[in-house]
């Protein structure tokens, strides 16, 4: 099977030595089991019938030795195979995480967080159980069955054929059960992914659920998924349970045939009682591993369904790749230029339709316009979170697609309105801006972002955990930590997407002053809906329907009396524009 071959080639091969040692231990276990069955013949014929006292001492001693060998070998094969199974799943999880870290932003937007988490937890757990159970079980049970069946054919090949004539009947039902288990398992894992997504979204949005009184609605959504999962699990259990009665029935028929035929041989004197009981003991001992093998097929199919889902993610190739001749980006002035840029998200409408704009080196440029105009898309194309469909984005004349990703993103600091804080300490979240930063540098960045004062007021200061997504902090505090992180990075290009949107008036004043200092000598692109925060920008580009329709300074755009002037008038309706106020002050 392709999946099994791939698992063996990519993840089992490094542990071939351990598996070989485990197989040797399985051989010892199986040999000891077969030897116990073989001992039945001399025990009955020589001890109980012939009254051989010498064997009365030897056979018990042999049983003890075989028990020790079997116990020792069984322990080590179990330890070795379990370790291999756990290690394989750990390697897959590491590869999976590494693959997702290299995946495009678009991939995360297309796949809900809960679904991706389900890959690491449910799918990996299913594969872990299957790998551990199947590797240890199939190896041990199959080897034991082979040894016992070989003993039976050695003792009497005709009687062995009589015993096993019924077992081929089980092959087709067992294969059918396995296929059904695989389908049901795949559906179950998909439903679990959806359920995990529901839980993640509901818990994250608990505040809104309660605010809008939607508890009953969310309970119904959860109930539908839970009932669907229940039905799938029940179907899987029914399918899995079929194997046991099937093997029980066939095993009973096999034993009955052996007793009928073998008993007739013993009565007619063609076989000794010891030989018959040795044979039937081997059959009964072989029955258990054969029954286990039939049950393990269900586990194998569940594991393969999980593996198929995991490999789907492992096979994801990022569209944002470095060119073969990519070189480190050397930022001199930091000029950013968009030339005829077109872009669309997936198969949707054009987000950008022939954008031409320039961000002069070392200057602050603002992007303004209505929501959905394309401002954030422009920002996302600079660090290559997405690639242009046509046209080019250049920094100091270098196409961003010709620069190495590490150097490109290392030259850019981003502060977004979507604050991303990790469930770690305040210090660790700020230090995310530059790995290895000193304590003094972290504190200096916090002070520059007007965050040091509130941080020191926290219960553990810089060592205070911020909680998931920074839930223990206010919106303004989270925003200032994000700004401190960007300040610590000290990159030559700064991207600010509504960076002060969550701040109160006093905090905004402090942070704007800090940002003004940070912007000096740096190329800065600012997105802001509050036009009061960008009136001092060196250049303002007005974006509308995916195009740059106006460019100029604040005063120039007001005189132009276009879209920017209308936006400004709407925001300051009922207020005295600062230009008018200035005229009154000057003119008296």
Overall SS class: alpha/beta
Q: How large is the radius of gyration?
A: 36 Å
Number of beta strands: 10
* Beta content: 5-15%
Q: What's the CATH topology name of the domain at 2-314?
A: ABC transporter transmembrane region fold
Helix content: 55-70%
CATH level 4 superfamily of the domain at 2-314? ABC transporter type 1, transmembrane domain
Could you explain the architecture of this structure?
The termini are far apart. The protein has a domain at 2-314: ABC transporter type 1, transmembrane domain (ABC transporter transmembrane region fold, Up-down Bundle), CATH 1.20.1560. Helix 5 packs antiparallel against helix 6, helix 5 (113-155) runs antiparallel to helix 10 (273-314) and helix 14 crosses helix 16 (475-489). The protein has helices at 2-12, 16-49, 53-101, 105-110, 113-155, 157-164, 171-204, 206-211, 215-267, 273-314, 375-381, 405-410, 426-431, 439-448, 452-456, 475-489, 505-519, 554-560, 563-571, 578-587; strands at residues 336-344, 350-359, 364-368, 390-395, 398-399, 412-415, 493-497, 523-527, 539-544, 547-552. The strands form two sheets. Strands 6-7-8-3-9-10 form a six-stranded mixed β-sheet, sandwiched between helices. It is α/β, with parallel strands linked by helices. A hairpin with a 2-residue loop joins strand 9 (539-544) and strand 10. It has 20 helices and ten strands.
